[in-house]
Design brief:
By secondary structure, the protein is α+β, with helices and mostly antiparallel strands. It has a single domain, classed as Oxidoreductase, molybdopterin-binding domain (Sulfite Oxidase, Chain A, domain 2, Alpha-Beta Complex), CATH 3.90.420. It has 10 helices and 12 strands. The strands form 2 sheets. Strands 3, 4, 7, 8, 9, 11 and 12 form a 7-stranded mixed β-sheet that branches. A 5-stranded mixed β-sheet has the order 2-1-10-5-6. A hairpin with a 5-residue loop joins β11 and β12. The protein is globular, with a radius of gyration of 19 Å. Bound molecules: ligand MTE and molybdenum atom.
């Protein structure tokens, strides 16, 4: 019999009561992993739940942006992604309503906890199956590419959404610079792991940190995928993923990994944090699809975080024209 530990179907955030069978499986798994006694509870209190909250209210001041490469902002807006027909979300709301579990599972608290997190200097490694791997400081990396601004829709799996102007450059340009070999079939991304600066990590000890994500190489090369370095014409605030994050606008928000320290070209589909925790809820592909409900809530509509308006969700989050062909459904 193969010796495989099958992770239980963790109900990441149970707003409801945990069925006993799930509770038992989770406990067995935690014991396997050496976390006996670790808060079962943490996991069951998590909050990837359908979002029915009322709109976040702008709190006090927005947190300061990281000062690196300030001279490059604001960058010119790419006319192909000028946001015509879209209304930008309120910048204070997007800076104070965040998912960044390394700090907190409370969206309103993240921006108040990032102060001690240092994002300059910042070393990024781009390596794996490529001819020209590099290890470079984020400031220097950002200096190597022309920055542009693009207005994108952004859709969290929890059914909230925003429309923001990102600054950055296409991931495809960075990948081209390291020259992937023909064996490179996927790209794996990893976030910084600094428990001493990230108070959320200790509260979720059973999570498979660091936060990781992945794309197929053809997805990663699509022009829509950005390495974002800024938002609203300024460097990224720490809570939005300074100094470098991914933005993949046709996929659920968790694919847009923040505060990246490593980009690795790999041959096999990499494990991701969310897929490891709950593969039936957060699968690797995770394209926005209003017709496929999350196991615990509908994905047919979404709530704009600043106005509270509920609007229909679009296939591929409105980017079908650019990406449906990647999935044999042009
Ligand atoms: N490292 C890391 N990246 C992350 C997350 C996280 O918890 N940790 N949350 C993801 C999720 S679920 C969403 S919706 C977006 C939120 O981005 P924002 O706070 O800039 O709006 O970040 C994604 N990237
Ligand atoms: Mo999300």
């Amino acid at each position: 019999m193969p010796n495989i530990i099958v992770p239980p179907r963790w109900r990441i955030p149970e707003s409801q009561i945990t069925p006993e069978s799930v509770y038992r499986n989770r406990r067995a798994f935690l014991q396997e992993m050496g976390f006996a006694g670790a808060g079962l509870l943490a996991a069951s209190q998590m909050s990837f739940a359908a979002d029915t909250a009322s709109p976040a209210k702008p709190a006090a001041a927005a947190a300061a942006a990281s000062g690196a490469t300030g001279g490059k902002y604001p960058a010119p807006r790419n006319p192909k992604f000028d946001g015509k027909g879209l209304t930008l979300s309120d910048a204070t709301v997007t800076a104070e309503y965040n998912n960044f579990y390394e700090f907190s599972t409370s969206k309103e608290r993240v921006h108040r906890l990032v102060g001690p997190f240092t994002t300059d200097p910042w070393t990024v490694r781009i390596d794996g199956l490529c001819e020209k791997p590099m290890t470079v400081d984020a400031r220097e990396l950002i200096g190597q590419f022309p920055l542009e601004e693009r207005v994108y829709r952004f859709r969290c799996v929890e059914a909230w959404a925003m429309i923001v102007p990102w600054t950055g450059f296409p991931l495809a340009k960075l990948l081209a610079a390291v020259k992937p070999t023909s064996d490179a079939k996927f790209v794996k991304f990893t976030t910084a792991l600094r428990p001493e600066q990230m108070p959320g990590i200790a509260r979720l000890r059973e999570y498979p940190w660091p936060y990781t994500e992945g794309l197929r190489i053809d997805e990663a090369m699509n022009d829509l995928v950005m390495v974002a370095t800024g938002i609203y014409g300024k460097p990224l605030p720490k809570q939005n993923g300074a100094p470098l994050r991914l933005v993949v606008p046709w996929k659920y928000g968790y694919k847009s990994i923040k505060s990246i320290v490593r980009i690795e070209l790999v041959a096999k589909q990499p494990a991701t944090l969310w897929e490891t925790l709950a593969p039936d809820e957060y699968p690797f592909e995770s394209n926005v699809n209003p017709r496929v409900p999350h196991p615990r809530w509908s994905q047919a509509s979404e709530r704009l975080i600043d106005t509270g308006d509920r609007v229909p969700t679009l296939p591929y989050n409105g980017y079908a024209e650019q990406v449906a062909g990647l999935y044999g459904k042009s």
